[in-house]
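Human: Here is a favour to ask of a fellow structure person. Comparing notes only helps if you start from a blank page. Give me a protein, with the fold worked out from its sequence. Please set it down just below, with no commentary around it:

Assistant:
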Amino acid sequence: MSIVLVASSEPRVGRSLLAAAVAYRMGRAGKGVTLARLAGDESAAADAAAFAALAHIVSPGAPVAPGDVASLSGDVVLEAPVGSVREVAASLGARVLVIGTAGGDTVDALEGAVVGTVLTRVPASAAADAASRAGVLAVWAEERVLAAPSVADIAAALDAEWLGGRGGRYTVDRVMIGTVASDAAEPYFAERQRTCVVTRFDKTDIQLAALLTDLRCLVITGGGDPSPYLLDRVTQEDVAVLRTKGSTPESVRAIEGLYTLSRFDGEGKLQRAVELLDQANFPAEF
């Protein structure tokens, strides 16, 4: 059994996403691999649940203690809590893969245990220079897909009521405000993919036009009841309809504040992360 420990000195820099992408690529190469989350912080349960929901990934679905790692099958990709991994890496005999921002602190690990670093949130103009640093295996430049929040994140940020539809684990690439008139709505929304449309509860024509496009989430503002016809339409759709008491501008500002801060949760980010590692000729195993 080989163990890759994904570590960082900073929170919310992409540990879960990198761990999932590494495990996916190892499995794609024919390796038997388990993706797991080490216990030890308040994020462990949510991360473990997100791993278990991924297709084509073997994961226990709950955080594991260091002493339980030996019972996992195949090679193991293990996400660690933020901070030092010196002791746990030594006890498991693990290789350490570090992820962090270009200006972040180094991870406390045993000398020789670190196999490389992935730099994230790097401005596109600085990506080439960052990639040339010693020990850097890949650079994830700033981009909307990797920074996007999930529908569940949006619901929590707005303290919203879930009125219908599915799609809680989907991510949202772009937030759009409903148009004034319905004749412009469909072509306006159709210009973007994986959208969240925010509009007042009484703008039924705008809401229905949004449903004809690549919509992931419809936020109904103002606290009122939307048309029953709208709720009937989304019964079989992979679209979440959320109701919030706040105004449309307030809701948009709250959602935009989620970008770069949201947890990894879903296939869209994973697919993009795998693509970026492939482009960087990232090792298939360690």
Q: What stands out?
A: The domain at 3-144+264-279 is CATH 3.40.50.300 (Rossmann fold). The mean pLDDT is 89. The first strand starts at residue 3 and ends at 7. The chain has two domains: 3-144+264-279, 149-256.
